[in-house]
């Protein structure tokens, strides 16, 4: 899948997504949380792809597979050098930062050029992302 394929998923309801992808019940986890998205239903896909639905609507896709995350990040950056709306601390580690491209619906956690994870969500304002998805990590202790 490419970024456009993931973004297309946001037009599907939870029931449509489950039916279209033939998701077995053991890959569905209810009443979970992802950052500030609470009371969510998480659908686990292969290659460490996690789709978080809230009230029947897809809210965010989290991808932590290193090969897939790098592929998506390279695709995102291939057309032109992207400038993030904001750079914030990442929960991935003390030296990782999250590059927020809220208007494009993508955030990447990067550590010295290596992608930790990618988040894909409906395009929104930077403020919306910070208020409704991003959760500031606690201080890292050595």
Structure description:
The protein has 142 residues and is of the alpha+beta class. It has one domain. The chain has helices spanning 3-8, 14-20, 66-78, 126-132, and strands spanning 28-34, 37-45, 49-54, 57-63, 86-89, 97-101, 106-111, 114-120. An 8-stranded antiparallel β-sheet has the order 1-2-3-4-8-7-6-5. The radius of gyration is 15 Å and the shape is globular.
List keywords for this structure.
single chain, about 140 residues, eight-stranded antiparallel beta sheet, alpha+beta
Unreliably modeled segments: none
How many helices? The count is 4
Query: Proportion of β residues?
Result: 35-45%
Distance between the termini: 38 Å
Describe, in short, the structure shown.
The protein is an alpha+beta fold and 142 residues long. The chain has helices at 3-8, 14-20, 66-78, 126-132, and strands at 28-34, 37-45, 49-54, 57-63, 86-89, 97-101, 106-111, 114-120. It has an eight-stranded antiparallel beta sheet.
Topology record:
Blueprint: H1 3-8, H2 14-20, E1 28-34, E2 37-45, E3 49-54, E4 57-63, H3 66-78, E5 86-89, E6 97-101, E7 106-111, E8 114-120, H4 126-132
Antiparallel strand pairs: 1-2, 2-3, 3-4, 4-8, 5-6, 6-7, 7-8
